[in-house]
Amino acid sequence: MTQLSHFVSGRFLPSAGAVVPIFNPATEAQIDLVPLGLKEEVDVAVAAAKAALPAWSALGLQQRSNLLFDLRQALAENRQEIIDLILCQTGKTLADATAEIARAAEIIGHATATPTLSATPYTRSVAANINTYEVRYPVGIVAAISPFNFPVMIPLLQTMTAIACGNTVVVKPSERNPSALLHIAELFSKAGLPDGVFNVVLGDRTIVDHIIEHPDVAAITFVGSTPVARYVRTQGVAHNKRVQAFGGGKNHLVIMPDADLDTAANAAVSAAFGAAGQRCMAVSVVVIVGSIADDLVKAIIDRASAISMGDVADASSELGPVISAQSRQRIVDYIDAAAGEGGILALDGRQRIVEEAGWYVAPTVIDHVKPGMAVHSEEIFGPVLSVVRVETYQEAIDVISASTFGNGAAIFTNDGALATQFTDDAQAGQIGINVPIPSPVYFHGFAGWRSSAFTESKLHGRDAIDFLTRTKTITARTLQAQIEGAM
Ligand code: NAD
Q1: What's the whole-number average pLDDT of the chain?
Q2: Name one GO molecular function term (predicted).
Q3: 284 and 189 housed in the same domain
Q4: Residue 141, pLDDT above cutoff 90
Q5: Average pLDDT of 65-84?
Q6: Is the pLDDT of residue 356 over 90?
Q7: Residues 108 and 171 in one domain
Q8: Which of 81, 305, 344, 401 is the residue whose CA sits 20 to 30 A from 113?
Q9: Quick one: DSSP state of residue 357?
């Protein structure tokens, strides 16, 4: 077993903290040890970020952008090693891990557009001989705290535009699977990123608390579960930080009677069970309107039963394990409880054992779910799809509104006017029309509504640059004497 180290100022920094094991979710084997870093080690990382800040922020926007192209190249050239690390620590399938690296490359590509996106307004002649304009500055040291479910994509989403803006970063990945990000930090360093610009610290909630309190950290970008997002936002604001905190989701897919049944069933299955349902934008509730319900549920079950599970490195595997034994137990408990609350287990994933070991839960479909049941009101974060049957479009909207989450909501229909109406009615930050998971491309913004996000800013897109920079507004008079002197 390897004992992992922080990555600070261009080199690995061993920790003196206690260690906890990292497991391979597909085999349950202990594979590495991760230290729970000490506060003084966080201080070293923040000091490294602080030391690197003046030179990095003074580099031209275009020079930083050019360097990002090199980082993207480094990621591409070492793609397979990173995929292997995701497979063994996260339990993703080969297809999911490969897709994550493709998204990661797009994220770095998006960050190279920061010079174009960060232009500021200039107003000539606000009064005679007076012009007003805004100037951006990096906010300073940005701390990123990341979840386990996209161990590469999300930390890069939180940091690449940040560094493009001239900030330096300290990232705390999930303690369950940090190796892929550590490897990327080393690759970035070898590709020419100056020491101290991108630092990775290892640990759990204790060092998150220290990061929140640290006087040299200017901004915190958090992605994780809703209770922790709420906590980080509240504590961070109390410490006068800029904080964007993105939480969990409970995403609804409404299927209208006029939708194509095969298309809708395929979409529901891929959006519910892809990445074992461990996506903040996974569809976890399908709301079926009208008389198509029996046929649609049957079509969903037929497809979900055929999903292949097994060795995650085998390209034919479509569903991997969930992240931990605790997570598997939590999911099983939800399925148990749903039956007690009146849900019908139309497809029971607790019974389908595919491997001798591994925290697998097979696709599960719970029919006749009603708002108020735990499987509707809480985020399960596993391969469990709830089916709510309603008679009207308005009832479907009410089901969405009954949830406290608001990451995404989608509708499948051939009625254009209704689709537009849905855009207005659904209480969520991302809306899909005949698209089950409406995660936007990176040049558009992403933020959930309600308890899915505690923020005024977006995770990506133009708005993210406002979060990652601060501005001065300059009002400048050209003196009459200068004008006359020049003539
Ligand atoms: P988590 O909240 O358990 O952990 C996220 C991070 O917070 C980790 O780095 C962890 O070490 C730290 N942390 C955990 N408990 C803490 C505490 N009490 N105080 C301070 N820090 C703490 O989330 P997870 O299980 O790693 O990830 C899954 C969750 O993330 C799901 O709820 C999912 O919906 C959400 N998520 C949201 C988005 C989004 O964009 N909104 C994207 C991906 C994942």
Answers
A1: 96
A2: methylmalonate-semialdehyde dehydrogenase (acylating, NAD) activity
A3: no
A4: yes
A5: 98
A6: no
A7: yes
A8: 81
A9: S
Residue 122 amino acid letter: Y
pLDDT at 212: 98
- Please count the structural domains in the chain: 2
State the Rg of the chain over Cα.
Answer: 24
Read off the CATH number of the domain in which 269 is found.
3.40.309.10
Asked, for residue 94, whether it belongs to a domain, the answer is yes
Task: Tell me which H or E stretch contains 253.
Answer: strand 251-255
Q: Which domain holds residue 236?
A: 2-247+456-474
CATH number of the domain at 229, please.
Answer: 3.40.605.10
Q: Which residue has the tokens 């010079």?
A: 115
Confidence of residue 310 (pLDDT cuts 50, 70, 90): confident
Same domain, 319 and 263: yes
Co-location of 117 and 258 in the same domain? no
Task: Kindly state whether residues 141 and 265 are assigned to the same domain.
Answer: no
Q: Give the per-residue pLDDT at 354.
A: 63
Q: Say which amino acid occupies 308.
A: S
35 lines ligand 1 (CB under 6 A): no
Q: How far apart are CA 131 and CA 125, in angstroms?
A: 5
pTM: predicted TM-score of the whole model, two decimal places = 0.97
Q: Are 224 and 107 members of one domain?
A: yes
Residue 483 reports pLDDT greater than 80: no
DSSP 246: E
Residues 226 and 277 in one domain: no
Q: What is the DSSP string of 425-481?
A: H--SSEEEES-SS-PPPTTS-----GGGEE-SS-SSSHHHHHHHEEEEEEEEEPPHH
Query: How is residue 117 written in tokens?
Result: 């996106």
pLDDT of 475 > 80? The answer is yes
450 within domain boundaries: no
User: 227 C-alpha to center of ligand 1: Å?
Assistant: 9
- Is 336 within a domain? yes
Spatial contact of 144 and 172, defined as CB atoms under 8 Å apart:
yes
| pLDDT for position 163 | 98
3-state secondary structure of 396: helix
Distance 449 CA to ligand 1 centre (A): 17
Quick one: 377 and 462 in the same domain? no
The answer to whether the CB of 148 is under 6 A from ligand 1 is yes
Sheet containing strand 130-138, edge to edge, reads: 122-127, 130-138, 469-477
Q: Report pLDDT for 446.
A: 95
Give the position, in ligand 1's atom list, of the atom nearest the Cα of 232.
20
Evaluate if residue 223 carries a pLDDT over 90.
yes
